[in-house]
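Late entry, evening session. Most of the bench is empty. Finally got around to the prediction I had been postponing all week. Sequence below, unchanged from the version circulated by S.P.
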Amino acid sequence: MSISPSSLSSIPTCYATVSIGTPSTPLSQKLSAISSAGFRGIELGFPDLLSFASTHHNRSIQPQDYDALCSAATQVKQLCASQNLQIVMLQPFSNFEGWSQGSSQRDDAFTRAKGWIRIMQALGTDMLQVGSTDSPYASPDFDILASDLRELCDLLAPHNFRLAYENWCWATHAPDWIHVWEIVKKVDRDNIGLCLDTFQTAGGEWADPTTVSGLIDTGKGNVLREIRWEDSMEDLGRRVPKEKIYILQISDAYKPVKPLDPEPDEDGMRPRGRWSMNLRPVPFDGGYLPVLDVAGAVLKTGFRGWFSMEVFDGGPEGKDNEWKDMKGYAEKAMRSHKRLLQEAATI
């Protein structure tokens, strides 16, 4: 499917609250910067809700205190409305699927799910982002993973809520878009679709932060990597129905100054997970991933839904950003979004 330039003008723009400022930055300031840059929606990060709730209630709020979080969420809803921002999605809901039946971890996962559904009701959002599990103890059986997600879909359905399933490129069993797509098909529910991500896709299938080149080493030269990448993007554009893509998250990546240790760190985080934390700028600002390839493949499905900036930008060295100019950064992100669409129109 070709990309019609005129069809790109209606694509709505979104910005993740975790991608600007820090969790301690007042949410009102984040929303003001995002709105003033021209974005129409937000992904609300749970850390930002937790911080806002603690300020709102003047005490430390725990992640399981759903009464307090729901009370705070009603205030967040009003704040967003005052800035003309839609709350597109609540994120990130992690390590949900694949726990053993009867385990305390599985019980906790479903308790969290029910609590987050309450929060979604208070926020007025209809979409929950679920990242593919990175737990080493999760089942590798796609049928089991799909069964758990099917149960979650059935919990969401009475509220007309949707599940946006994202491949995290450091996930244990579903790191690539094709893996989460296979699981989504097995779930077989109308209210599950994909949360695709330029970093997660290109960072998992094309790049490797543990090599000197920053690229996946196939052992057979660059040609094989590029052929595999092109085939994957062609498959994505051809195989996934547009209605099964709920949102596209956008970021690039800096090539690490020094290759990352290929082994998990002391917290068990794999190298691509560590890379993701603070080396993800907006496109066209020092990164090296083929972001345009991913955006183009998604657009070729016919998808014209939310394009959302989800960046974690600590500069090329991955240092913490002091965030002296949130408004300026949000404006840079909007310029990046517009350039991305302009270049996609030429594909």
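Two things to note before I forget:
The chain is about 45% helix and 15% strand.
The beta strands are 13-16, 41-45, 86-93, 127-131, 162-166, 192-197, 245-250, 279-280, 306-309, 312-313.
Will write this up properly tomorrow.
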